[in-house]
Amino acid sequence: MAIGLSHSPRGMGRVAWFASLFLSWKVPGALVVIVLVAGASGLVARRVSLAAYYHAFALASPPVLVITSDDWGGPARETAADLQRLGDTLRQFTDAYGHHPVLTTYVTPAEPDFERIAAGGYAAYAWRSAYEGKPDVVSAWRALAEEGLVEIQLHGREHWNVPLGMEALRRDVPGFRNACRDERVPYRHDEAGRAVADRDPRFRYLASSFCDATRNPLGSLSLETQEAMVRDAVGLIEEDFGVRPTVAVPPNLVWDINTWKALRAAGLAYLEVAPAEVIEVDEDLRRVRTGTYLRWGNNAFGVKPVLRNCFYEPGSAPDPAEVAARARATVGRLLALGTPVVITTHAENYVAAGSQAEASLAGLADLLRGVQTESPDVAFLGASDLGRYMYDGGVGAAREIPFERGRLSLWGRLGCVFVILWVRQSFRIWVYALVVGVAWLVAAYVLGWRRRSEAKQ
């Protein structure tokens, strides 16, 4: 480039000369460049639009904040003291309508009964209640639910893939029986689970209960089997806590059409899902994106989706306060767009030993405090109430708020998408490239037109 510029015609500025080179490509060549840039930015937009800000077109007034949490029950083995600390944190806050924050807790009320399984020679599966012999924990849950600080919903019967787990037990996969004997269910996040998954990728789905992971790719459990699993889980939740769940989150967010049908048959009305690519294991074993079925306003197989769009997972992070700050920024952007915010978190953040649970709760308090400071009129709802307001006009909602649902015009949607994507650095880079390309074309045309006009004179 430097050599070319050093030979630019006398009397012609470098910019004008370079513009003339651009014009020498002719208009079709320039259009090709612009189309390529625009196409690439479109691909980026398509990809990131499936991330945490997916489908922010459902307007809610007043602003709504929902907090949900997976993996209570069997995986968490929470104590009454854990629940007491959680309740103390939520009581610190009250919204403009007199409501404390409510944590929608997705519970797996059963767990594998490895003692009975082993006694039967690993021939048949057996489960037991995750709250068997724990009256103090059940009482703590009931007290929080009656106070309106939690709503207990369905995660699954157990957080364990029965066909795959039983196959591993029968095959005596090294380390698997020992882990189960010690009641350390070998999920992929612990040492035993990782060791098994390294040998066989199917074991990545050991915690995904609503599918048959004995095959690769995943297979589908029959409708009858899934109906029995959901029926058992709903019965256990009713027996232990005296409530009937209406919202579900499948373990590991893996489900199929039979799962939808089983949930509906058991009377569940809503399915909370992440706004990202998920696995749907239907008869054709095809992979779909959530946009196919899951968007506000759809009623897929009689079960309506509630979209989680923000994440607070401090876990063992060095600074839970920083995790809370990032979540608060996401909440602020979503509320500014008018979309309901559903923050998801996991039980493991609040049942950890030592100071980790305290730090996670402190971060949650910082998050709620920051949201209320920026949006004083925010309303705290549970996932079931959000579903009722979004789809059913608020009929049967436990909390009364002056809720209105609006619609965005086409231009409003385009503007919303642009704001959503603008927070992504990769998208901004493509926008800058597109703007530079268009500006270069305009400048080249104007300079070329002047040059031709001067030549005619």
Low-confidence stretches: 1-11, 45-54, 282-293
Percent range of helical residues: 40-55%
Give the radius of gyration: 27 Å
What is the total number of structural domains? 2
The overall strand count is 16
CATH superfamily of the largest domain: Glycoside hydrolase/deacetylase
CATH class of the largest domain: Alpha Beta
* CATH architecture classification name of the largest domain: Alpha-Beta Barrel
Which class of secondary structure composition applies to the elements? Answer: alpha/beta
| Beta-strand share of residues | 5-15%
- Tell me the overall shape: globular
Task: Examine the coordinates and then state which fold CATH places here, giving the name of the CATH topology of the largest domain.
Answer: TIM Barrel
Question: Overall pLDDT, averaged?
Answer: 81
Count of helical regions: 17
Distance between the termini: 31 Å
Main pleated-sheet profile: 6 strands, parallel
Short recap of the structure:
This protein has 457 residues and is of the alpha/beta class. It has 17 helices and 16 strands.
How would you sum up this structure, described in words?
The structure is a single chain. The protein is an alpha/beta fold and 457 residues long. It has two domains: 2-49 and 423-456; 61-161 and 207-412, TIM Barrel (Alpha-Beta Barrel), CATH 3.20.20. It contains 17 helices and 16 strands. Strands 2, 3, 6, 13, 14 and 15 form a six-stranded parallel beta sheet that branches. Strands 7-9-12 form a three-stranded parallel beta sheet, covered by helices on one side. Mean pLDDT is 81; it is low at 1-11, 45-54 and 282-293.
